[in-house]
């Protein structure tokens, strides 16, 4: 299974809910093809809100400095 590390930048509705759910739902179509999008990191300004999103969707980690995360991801979603 090829895993693609995903960084989501933005923690409002689009980043913290819509795109997070969309990535998880996309895996239902991608896994049979040998691809999995991994919710590697969500980045934003509010650490407490990021922690809640991490727990809700299973992100591996959070960051309040998106610039440091860019090189660690295979796919970046800016919301």
Task: Please tell me about this protein's structure.
With about 80 residues, the protein is α/β, with parallel strands linked by helices. The chain is about 35% helix and about 30% strand. It is built from two helices and four strands. The longest helix has 18 residues, at about 15-30.
Distance between the termini: 27 Å
The main sheet comes to: 4 strands, parallel
Order of helices and strands: EHEHEE
Rg on CA atoms, Å: 12 Å
The main sheet orders its strands as 3-2-1-4
Helix content: 25-40%
Give the class from helix and strand content and strand pairing: alpha/beta
Bulk shape:
globular
Mean pLDDT: 97
Beta content comes to 25-35%
Low-confidence stretches: none
Q: What is the number of E strands?
A: 4
Q: Supply the number of helical segments.
A: 2
Concise account of the structure shown:
This protein has helices at 13-30, 47-57; strands at residues 2-9, 35-43, 61-63, 75-78. By secondary structure, it is an alpha/beta fold.
Topology:
Elements: E1 2-9, H1 13-30, E2 35-43, H2 47-57, E3 61-63, E4 75-78
Parallel strand pairs: 1-2, 1-4, 2-3
Characteristics:
4-stranded parallel sheet, 37% helix, 79 residues, 30% strand, globular
């Amino acid at each position: 299974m090829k895993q693609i590390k995903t960084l989501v930048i933005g923690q409002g509705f689009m980043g913290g809910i819509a795109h997070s759910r969309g990535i998880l739902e996309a895996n239902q179509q991608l896994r049979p093809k040998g691809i999995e999008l991994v919710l590697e990191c969500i980045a934003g300004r509010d650490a407490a809100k990021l922690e809640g999103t991490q727990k809700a969707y299973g992100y591996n980690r959070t960051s309040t400095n998106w610039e440091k995360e860019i090189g660690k991801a295979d796919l970046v979603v800016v919301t």
